[in-house]
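Data availability excerpt. The first of two example chains:
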Amino acid sequence: MRTIAVMNQKGGVGKTTTSVNLAAGLAKRGKRVLVADLDPQAHASLHLGIEIAGDTPTIYQAFTGECPLSRIRRLVGPHLWLLPANIDLAATELELADTPGRELILREAVNALVAEEHYDYLIMDCPPSLSVLTINALSCADEVVIPLQPHFLALHGLSKLFETTALVTRRLNRKLKVSGIVLCMYETSTRLAADIADDLQAFLSQSDPEAPWSKAKIFENRIRRNIKLAEAPSHGLSIFDYSPKCPGSMDYMGLCDEVLAMEATERMPLAKAG
């Protein structure tokens, strides 16, 4: 199972949109995909048509040890499951403050789930902050995908994201790496967007080869500004179900195919060796 944390400490960059539509696109390609909503705002859950009410268990109950993930997950589409969230998740920072091993709670819960059920992908929508929820996601993940809006301030904050992944790699999760950067809200008509992409590529090419982001790629499929992407969450639908022929749908399906191609590339040397 590939475990991907979609992360950016800056809000409004397309993080939840990328989490949901990457997951939905992979499911459309026949992969078994589990989405973990780790944001107390529960936007990924709402985007997939789930609004928690009453005593329905959420991923918060997994962090408190009240409920296993197998009882929390919800089927939201063919090959697509969701671990929903609600505002209760905001209490985890305080409630887990004195809990030993609190950074590894999600990893252990996921390991228990996948011992019973097979998934090809786990996509985790992280909150826009460096919290115990984000650290749990990074401790559980194999990869980090970073949605980035192509302007100067977003690029300036990228170093903080890289520092965070390096810290988690050293202390909690040696296998963690930044596998890719998705340029969102891309405007093909502006020179700035192209300049930022060039600067980002230059930075990555000069990185320390031992850094967890040294092999990160800038995905070729840029996610263009598209009003349909903004409309889809209010209908509780992925972009593929809301407007399957719009530019946003084409861009995200292209991104999904790139992610799948990375998997095939990683397996190729093993196949040859056999």
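And the second chain:
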Amino acid sequence: MKKTLLLIVALLTLSITADAKWWIFGKSNAEIGLKYLQVNKIAADETGPKIKVFREMLAADGLIRINGRGSTGRNAVGSVRISLDDKATWSDVKFSENGTFEYAFKPEPGKTYIMLVEITDTAGKTNKVDETRKEIALSDENIQAKVRETLDAMFDAYNTESLEKFMVRVGDNFAGDKAILERAVKRDFDALGNISLRYTINNVSAGAQGRVFVSVTYNRMVFVNKTGASSTDTGSTEFVFDSKEGALSLFSMKQPLMFGLSDAENVATGTVIGGGETALVLDDSGDIGGALATRSYNSADAHFGYNFETQQFEDCDGTAANCTGQVFFMPGVPYIGVDDNPETTARIGELPGRSASSATLADIEAAATLQQVFGAFAGKTFGIKYGADRYALEITSLSGSGTYSITVRTKAF
């Protein structure tokens, strides 16, 4: 009996060595599925069973791109396949270690593609493939001009703080409640000034019930009335519009929100995958969180500090010891440091290759170990720990000798 068992083990070992198939590495009862699925940057889970892709919105190569991320619980993704003809044929898709994948194809005019996505984990278990079924069709309809006209009107009304003109573009069946959005936008106008929003359309698709799905890349700058500081961010987000009688009206928005920042929880219907490092949100006090603040300062002294709480530079009265902010500068050295008060246990460290927008809390925890750093040049970013608070500070410009001019971007965590 022992010889038989040994022979079976030996044969199994030989088969593994000779042909190491991915499905032999264990079994799992974890649910297999998709964390997200996008067709030309539009979330496929909201469009309904049919997606209309507009030819004018395709890239120069004329391809439709499908990207997503598999979810496999404890196991890793073992394979990804896509069918465009209702399972008649399948194409293997390359994927990364975290399960993300992308597949592109060139659509033919007048043809409808029945897409299904199959995710298999390293135990051989697959997702519920039929739940991923989508009908994709190419349309020659010109939609971009209509979308741009609507977005231009909304962005212009918001930038100029015209509540009435903004709300005209919002549908009566707005998913987040139209009255809540109106109150939130009004609070935005009360808290913010000099609003500047710009956008570029990434893609437009149409789905069920005549709805139009729009993906945009944006950049934004606002001034917070409470502090006088400017905040900036950039990223991508999504809108959904109802289309009736040739006109578009806003149905829903995702985070990062462009409008209604003061009540994001009740205004947004979800979050865009990879939308941005942070999403600007107005708190109840009228201050902004998750934001980048940009501040500039001119100093005739060789010592000055920066206070993260007030987002202001401060004169140090001739010596670094007199600085009251969390960090202080000696640009002639060049040098940046934090105070040595044992109650704050302040620490600082450089974050190579990072900006204030890309810095993470983990970066700061790992790097902020010193009390002073030499080499405070333009283009460098530093992580600061100050008691329980954490900050990223990027020196975007620093010039002068004797009289100094500095601009920094900061982010609080």
